[in-house]
Amino acid sequence: MSVIDVHAHVFPPITRDEARLLAGAGEPWLRQNGDSTGMMMSGDADYRPVAAELWDPAARLVAMDRAGVDVQAVSSTPLMFGYEAEAARAADWCELVNDRILAYCADTSGRLLPLCQVPLQDTELACAAVTKAKAAGHRGVHIGNHVGARYLDDAEITAFLAHCADEGMPVLVHPWDMLGGDRMGGRYMLPWLVGMAAETQLSILSLMLSGAFERLPGSLKLCFCHGGGSFAYLLGRADNAWRNRDIVRKDSPKPPSAYTDRFYVDSAVFDPGALRLLVEVMGADRVMLGTDFPFPLGELEPGSTIRACEALTDEECAALLGGNARRFFDLEGTTLR
């Protein structure tokens, strides 16, 4: 049985000078302390302390072996998206990041699957970046769930998703720049605890209720991080609203529950009861192991929630731990480890 983690982040070494490419739009770079610790930087400001697994592939593989993880799909840390930068600069930045991620994954015997990022603020440039990244060896694309006030149902972003389907590039959607920050501030990490879940539910319902799933090709492979956020728990509320309010169903011919076969979610819910509900809502073929490695809000024992969920059969457990990800990333027939 293979164990494949679809939600794992990387911050490859990028210098302060290289980060200036974004010209004030975050300017993320990595400060290494020389002792297997470092700091993610935003311009001249400290952002988050980190350890070598984030930027050192050898350290990552050691951690994966220790945790019993065979393969990780490696995506950039969302701080690196660059969506607030001028589009041409963002395109150059994404090319730099994508090249570094490829180099990070290069000598790992296929155990690290590189996911690219794109300048999502410009559809033409984003589509070109996906095409180029696929040719270079990237196995999927990692995007934030919105660009400013434009969510995934925005016509331009929907066109980008359709292009990903045409290219056969799976899309991993990660919440970022969380709503409600003016009310939550930095207290208790509430933007991460509340805002991330709300952002993800908002993205999923936007695709459903706007009719975007009706327009997007069925071949699109789309996965939402963090268990789909609040979506599974509140799906009954959304269906009830669709049945009883014409303003909710005006653009969607089907209730939200009719679209759960159009996307995947990861398993990062941290509670076997929550995972049981998630599998009941999504189906055991639509949930994949995701840990948020190597950050401390992630699952520190990869797969422990799946293995502790007594409602899952052995076959379903194997599907969540790796079988579904094999299909998502077209790894069928590939020998892992």
TrEMBL record:
<dbReference type="GO" id="GO:0005829">
    <property type="term" value="C:cytosol"/>
</dbReference>
<dbReference type="InterPro" id="IPR032466">
    <property type="entry name" value="Metal_Hydrolase"/>
</dbReference>
<keyword id="KW-0378">Hydrolase</keyword>
<keyword id="KW-0456">Lyase</keyword>
<keyword id="KW-0862">Zinc</keyword>
<dbReference type="GO" id="GO:0016787">
    <property type="term" value="F:hydrolase activity"/>
</dbReference>
<dbReference type="Pfam" id="PF04909">
    <property type="entry name" value="Amidohydro_2"/>
</dbReference>
<keyword id="KW-0479">Metal-binding</keyword>
<comment type="similarity">
    <text>Belongs to the metallo-dependent hydrolases superfamily. ACMSD family.</text>
</comment>
<feature type="domain" description="Amidohydrolase-related">
    <location>
        <begin position="4"/>
        <end position="331"/>
    </location>
</feature>
<dbReference type="InterPro" id="IPR032465">
    <property type="entry name" value="ACMSD"/>
</dbReference>
<dbReference type="GO" id="GO:0019748">
    <property type="term" value="P:secondary metabolic process"/>
</dbReference>
<protein>
    <recommendedName>
        <fullName>2-amino-3-carboxymuconate-6-semialdehyde decarboxylase</fullName>
        <ecNumber>4.1.1.45</ecNumber>
    </recommendedName>
</protein>
<keyword id="KW-0210">Decarboxylase</keyword>
<dbReference type="GO" id="GO:0001760">
    <property type="term" value="F:aminocarboxymuconate-semialdehyde decarboxylase activity"/>
</dbReference>
<comment type="subunit">
    <text>Monomer.</text>
</comment>
<comment type="pathway">
    <text>Secondary metabolite metabolism; quinolate metabolism.</text>
</comment>
<dbReference type="GO" id="GO:0046872">
    <property type="term" value="F:metal ion binding"/>
</dbReference>
<dbReference type="InterPro" id="IPR006680">
    <property type="entry name" value="Amidohydro-rel"/>
</dbReference>
